[in-house]
From TrEMBL, chain A:
InterPro entries: BPD_transp_1_N, MetI-like, MetI-like_sf, Opp2B. PROSITE patterns: ABC_TM1. The chain crosses the membrane at residues 106-126, 147-166, 178-197, 281-304. It comes from Sporobacter termitidis DSM 10068. NCBIfam families: Opp2B. Belongs to the binding-protein-dependent transport system permease family. OppBC subfamily. Gene3D superfamilies: MetI-like. This is Nickel import system permease protein NikB.
From TrEMBL, chain B:
This is Peptide/nickel transport system permease protein. It comes from the Bacteria. The keyword Cell wall biogenesis/degradation does not apply. It is found in: Cell membrane. One of its GO terms (biological process) is transmembrane transport.
Length: 311, 289
């Protein structure tokens, strides 16, 4: 029962966030540079005149008071109707959903990669605490968390694309080219995971089940990998999930550098040509995805860690 | 107490080298006019894309502008924006944290809900929205981080205030009939400072990376501003022919961020005795834009 109440509370907390997001997206079309009617006409390739401006205003419902316009806009938004892209002349949601799989693939690959290299490094670091290996790994993870993704991406592209000529400089979103952008994204996250996991593992070593494992004759390293790891990873579920949510919102810089046609690159390219319906749609779709992921994580975590209930 | 902290900090080599780099860069930013060999905005296509020479120590860019001079002026842009943003964040977050912690109740609840929203909102979304509404500029971009990043400070201050409220000296002052405002200024505020000073130093690094990143994708500083992010963006099309255009501004960003991180962590170790609280401050997350 308590758990149910907590879930309801979390859902209610979403309301103000949704209000802010929808207002932001709505005002984007109303306040932003230039009159909406003029911009719409120009996007249709029509020279704005007094008469057709009035007609378009009527057509778009721009003569209604703002709150009414907002409600009308919301009604369309819940059906994912964000209008037509000025740039491609196709429905915005269609355009965004078409690019979503590319972003999803990249997010999955980056998450997987960050775990693949952070888990062994953290195990090594925790097993041989204060050794040279531990110090090296800690320095590496500090540096990894410091290098901005946009610069790392450029440098990797230079190294592998220009110097070694292993990958094309302008790659496009073919699956065979996913390695570099995914690696670029995974470095900063992986570096954080190494740090968190290492300290969790060191914490976990003191617990009884580890003593029991050692008593059964398991070596320190094996005991840590077999029994310690699971318990050390559990508190990281939320962190990994939140980062996955961030990755799904489209990694603008990395997608741009590697010409990866995901939603982040689409949003920024649309910004350059002031394609406002796309920006609106992007903000709405991404924030809803993000909110949903966070909610699922919260609920999931209540089941993983029952202590949360006594919030 | 203060002497102890200073001694600890002075013996921390990493923190001191971080501080040395920071001071050097602040100096370079303030005296940019004096130490730059050239005007960072002077276009001269006759000397474009030159390698390093006595005249242009780091060479010139695609418009014949001196790279070294642009890097030095970029220091000014970067440090000025990051420090301004951090100060404004502190000016918002600290009072809100004190109010939430000291008054409690519905006020506390409201401030903390706002903090929840601010800390879960992805910065790239707000950046696109604000830049979409007001147009791309460095100042609009600064607003994004001011809107979002006051929240952790409010949270940290609030939790220290709640602890402090229960201490004997605050209760004694209350019993003696001191005014609320004087209790806050005399007893509460000074004792919340240690953790936020360390965290603010680390945040400066985060602001620098994010602002450079958004300028790189065209949502922040606009060309021809001498800004590291803009320089990276300009250099992108020369990745195969003149990679140094990309290497220098990136190195500057990494060096500055590393310096603030080293100094911030040193401050953190010196100022905060318990390792548990230290860990909270260190949880700064990745540098992805």
């Amino acid at each position: 029962m308590k758990r149910f109440k907590l879930i309801v509370k979390r859902v209610v907390q979403i309301v103000p966030i949704l209000l802010i997001v929808t207002l932001l997206a709505f005002f984007l079309s109303n306040v932003s540079s230039g009159d909406v009617a003029t911009v719409t006409l120009q996007s249709r390739g029509v020279q704005p005149t007094e008469q057709n401006l009035a007609a378009v205003r009527e057509e778009l419902g721009l003569n209604a008071p703002l709150p009414v316009q907002y409600i009308n806009w919301l009604k369309k938004a819940v059906q994912f109707d964000f209008g037509i892209s000025f740039q491609t002349h196709k429905p915005v949601s269609e355009e965004i959903f078409a690019r979503f799989p590319a972003t999803l693939k990249l997010a999955l690959a980056a998450t997987l990669m960050s775990l693949v290299f952070s888990i062994p490094l953290a195990l090594l670091s925790a097993r041989y605490k204060d050794s040279t290996a531990d110090h090296t790994i800690r320095i590496l993870s500090s540096v990894g968390a410091t290098i901005p993704d946009f610069w790392l991406g450029l440098m990797l592209l230079y190294l592998f694309g220009v110097v070694l000529k292993i990958v094309p400089v302008i790659s496009g979103s073919k699956l065979s080219n996913i390695f570099l952008p995914a690696f670029t994204l995974s470095v900063a996250y992986g570096a954080t995971y190494v740090r968190v996991l290492r300290s969790n593992l060191i914490e976990v070593r003191r617990f009884d089940y580890m003593k029991a494992a050692r008593a059964r004759g398991l070596g320190e390293g094996k005991a840590l990998a077999k029994h310690g790891l699971k318990n050390a990873l559990l508190p990281m579920v939320t962190l990994i999930g939140i980062n996955f949510g961030k990755l799904l919102s489209g990694q603008i810089a990395t997608e741009t550098i590697f010409s990866w046609n995901g939603i982040g690159k689409f949003a920024v390219d649309s910004m350059k040509v002031k394609d406002l319906p796309v920006i609106q749609g992007y903000i709405m779709i991404v924030s809803i995805t993000y909110i949903a992921i966070n909610l699922i994580l919260d609920i999931l975590y209540m089941y993983i860690d029952p202590r949360i209930q006594s919030d | 107490m203060v002497r102890n902290i200073l001694r600890k900090l002075l013996h921390n080599k990493a923190a001191m080298s971080g501080l040395a780099v920071i001071l050097l860069l602040v100096f370079a930013g303030i005296f940019a006019e004096r130490i730059s060999p050239h005007d960072p905005y002077k276009v001269d296509l006759a000397v474009k894309l030159l390698g390093p020479s006595a005249r242009y120590p780091l060479g010139t860019d695609q418009l014949g502008r001196c790279i070294l001079s642009r890097l030095i002026y970029g220091t000014r842009t970067s440090l000025y924006t990051a420090m301004t943003v951090t100060l404004v964040i502190l000016a918002i977050g600290v009072p809100l944290g004190i109010i939430a912690g000291y008054i409690g109740g519905a006020v506390d609840n409201m401030i903390m809900r706002l903090a929840d929203i601010a800390s879960t909102f992805p910065s790239s979304l707000l950046a696109l929205a604000i830049v979409g509404i007001f147009g791309p500029s460095l100042y609009n971009l600064m607003l994004v981080f001011i809107f979002l990043w006051w929240a952790p400070f409010a949270r940290m201050v609030r939790s220290s205030v709640i602890k402090l409220k229960e201490t004997e000296f605050v209760m004694a002052a209350e019993a003696a009939g001191s005014r609320r405002i004087s209790i806050i200024l005399k007893h509460i505020f000074p004792n919340t400072l240690s953790p936020i000073i360390a965290y603010a130093t680390l945040r400066i690094a985060a602001v620098i990376v994010h602002i450079a990143g958004f300028s790189f994708i065209g949502l922040g500083s606009q060309p021809p501003t001498a800004d590291w992010g803009v320089m990276l963006n300009d250099g992108r099309q020369y990745i195969s022919s003149y990679p140094m255009l990309l290497i220098w501004p990136g190195l500057m960003i990494v060096v500055v961020v590393l310096a603030f991180n080293l100094f911030g962590e040193g401050l953190n170790d010196a100022l905060i005795p318990s390792s548990e609280e230290r860990a909270i401050v260190k949880e700064t997350g990745g540098a992805n834009v």
